[in-house]
Amino acid sequence: RWTHHLHGAIRPENVIAMAETHKRIDDLTIYVIDTALAGARLARHINPDFHIAINMSAVALTRVQLIYDM
């Protein structure tokens, strides 16, 4: 769902697989959660009932340290 100027459309599962392979899934997960929560805070000023859902990789869910890093 991302468009790269050289490679075209890049699917989320490809990004996640690459992040897991290169041991960057924790960094990616923290970035996504931080970005989503910042957007949700802004949206709640307009709509107090605004909700978000964040999909996480199975690898990230098994990483207990990730919780402490956030």
Gyration radius from CA atoms, angstroms = 14 Å
Low-confidence stretches: none
Q: Strands of the biggest beta sheet: in what spatial order?
A: 1-2
**Structural class estimated from helices and strands:** mainly alpha
Number of helices: 4
Compute the separation of the termini in Å. Answer: 26 Å
Major sheet summary line: 2 strands, antiparallel
Count all strands and give the number. Answer: 2
Beta-sheet strand percentage? 5-15%
H-E string = EEHHHH
- Can you tell me the overall shape? flat
Could you estimate the helical fraction of the residues in percent? 55-70%
Q: What average pLDDT do the residues reach?
A: 86
Summarize the structure.
About 60% of the residues lie in helices and about 10% in strands. The protein is mainly α.
